Amino acid sequence: MVDMKQLQALFGGTFDPVHYGHLKPVEALANLIGLSKVTIMPNNVPPHRPQPEANSQQRKTMVELAIADKPLFTLDERELMRNEPSYSADTLQAWRQESGEKAPLAFIIGQDSLLTFHSWHRYDTILDNCHLIVCRRPGYALTMSEEAHQRWLDAHLTTRVEDLHTLPAGKIYLAETPWFDISATQIRQRLAHDEPCDDLLPAAVLEYIHQQGLYR
Ligand code: ATP
């Protein structure tokens, strides 16, 4: 009997702002594979990349508002509160050290992130520390653009949910989550043009954005 309570999942991102394209696929994923908790960890963006428009405190508050009525999610502020940039590889390594060798851990990403995964800082260490669970995202290829990357993907793929719950790390699972054609970029652009965004993110987050005068 597989213990479905063991698998811990982390969901990182910039969340500038958090939206339904983040929340809904992960809620569906939790039902599909049996996840009882997902930790959302907003990141600090490295200085050489475009900076978020909302500051750390605002991104944190938006996540708090978005998950207030969703017990599946918790917020981890550790990357946000750090002054230096955070790399997923380092965070996942620290998480492994805290959790012990045997705990099944997973990092949730969208399909777009899988396609650029090989450009991430120390990407090759990530599967040593956790599984990757990939949510579908419309508009992104389902296969890797380079043959070597596709071979890497094929070598790690699993279709067995039990693998995620019983093995500590090392598998990639392509989850059949519903597609949501929503991005933070699109929301920022719509808000800058005074266009409605009610279907794209929770009302409490939208209210906060207006109250703070963000993305204008
Ligand atoms: P931006 O438009 O500013 O680049 P984003 O909407 O892609 O932002 P991020 O905070 O960069 O949001 O994404 C965090 C994680 O959520 C990433 O792994 C990304 O792939 C995933 N994600 C974001 N939007 C979706 C979506 N609509 N469907 C599935 N996954 C998504």
TrEMBL record:
Would I find DNA-binding among this entry's keywords? Answer: no
Q: Which UniProt keywords apply?
A: ATP-binding, NAD, Nucleotide-binding, Nucleotidyltransferase, Pyridine nucleotide biosynthesis, Transferase
Which EC class is the enzyme in?
transferase
Catalytic activity field = nicotinate beta-D-ribonucleotide + ATP + H(+) = deamido-NAD(+) + diphosphate
Which superkingdom? Bacteria
Q: In which pathway does it act?
A: Cofactor biosynthesis; NAD(+) biosynthesis; deamido-NAD(+) from nicotinate D-ribonucleotide: step 1/1
| InterPro entries noted in UniProt | Cyt_trans-like, NadD/NMNAT, Rossmann-like_a/b/a_fold
Main function: Catalyzes the reversible adenylation of nicotinate mononucleotide (NaMN) to nicotinic acid adenine dinucleotide (NaAD).
| Protein name listed in UniProt | Probable nicotinate-nucleotide adenylyltransferase
Identify the species of origin.
Kosakonia cowanii JCM 10956 = DSM 18146
- What gene is this protein a product of? nadD
